[in-house]
Amino acid sequence: MNSSLVVILTALNLEYEAVRSRLTELRPHAHPAGTRFEVGRLGRHGCQVALGLVGKGNHPSAVLAERAMAEFSPAALLFVGVAGALRAKIQLGDVVVASQIYAYHGGTSQDDGLKARPRVWEIPHGASQIAQHLARGDEWAYGLGVSTAPRVHFGPIAAGEVVQDSVVSEQAGWVRQHYNDALAIEMEAAGVAQAGHLNRALPVVVVRGISDRADGSKTLTDRESWQPRAVANAAAFATALAQELVADGTARQPDAAKKDGRAQMGTTNSNIATGNARVGVQAGQVYGNLIHGAAPERPIDLSAGLAELRDLLKQAHRDGRLDEATYTAAEHELDAAAACLRQDTAQSRAAVMLPLKRLRGLVADVTELAARLAVTIDVAGSLS
Questions:
Q1: Which of 117, 113, 133 is nearest to 125 (CA)?
Q2: pTM exceeds 0.90, yes or no
Q3: Which candidate among 2, 126, 129, 328 keeps its CA 20 to 30 Å from the CA of 78?
Q4: Lowest mean pLDDT among 8-12, 71-75, 89-93, 359-363
Q5: What pLDDT, on a 0 to 100 scale, did the predictor assign at position 383?
Q6: Helices 226-248 and 125-136 sit at what angle, rounded to 10 degrees?
Q7: What is the largest CA-CA distance in the chain?
């Protein structure tokens, strides 16, 4: 797993460009089957993002989501774009995060009519909690040029195979009858959700900006430029969420008790020592960190801990284990943590945790750095 990279997929070029405009250091990445992604970084110091265009429909979105997951082994996958509102309380420009995704075209035809056979996927709990927390503030909306952040709603999204632009059509009645709690409707989320479901609980989050009301007024709202406004809002929330998922470090944690989807029994080791031979430490499969002997002392002085992290960071950069962009971003987070610490207030001591968590996402693949950072975060947490 690449714990510092998030895949973001879109269906339309307009949606793709809205996300792309937030990325720096872009470089193309070609899949052997012909799919072209772009890999960049959020801002100057943010997490990495692999951006892809899947086109319209649940089938291509499922195939290309699976392809992106296999290619990048991301910490999470976000699908970003526009949707039509199904509830009066949802305003144009609002953002809807799917708490559930309904594949509403499933059914069985019987003599007494068509019966619904829906497929449903839920947002992972951890990702939902992070998204809910992000939505409580308005920091994610900085840069949108609005005085008040757009509202963010959490609720079901219906995903079908046709564009719905009517409230009186047969399909509109079907959705209203069987999926009347859905907040929005679109055409790709079910495919992406199924791909995530088949990838050992990879967090998949669908973020939609509301560009129309699915009621026959789509031509008018498109003429009034609601699509670019709605997708800008969705892209702003999704990229902020990507950053938080990586910084939190819990986006995708492998289950230590499973391997290749199969539960593993504890490994039993046998060792026969003869004569004066002694067995010191014997282990089969070890997950996580292993410390033999005396545990390393926790840095009592957090400033000293940050200084030690900086030295380890420089060494990893010199050894080629951190590229230039990641090193620069990690230095920036260390500077931010040190600045919070120097203020020496209760609020600043609590604030030091955020840059340290972002740093964790950047250096997770450097073992000794990640281990020392975990201790430092633990110490910082005890001070807040």
A1: 133
A2: no
A3: 328
A4: 359-363
A5: 65
A6: 120
A7: 89
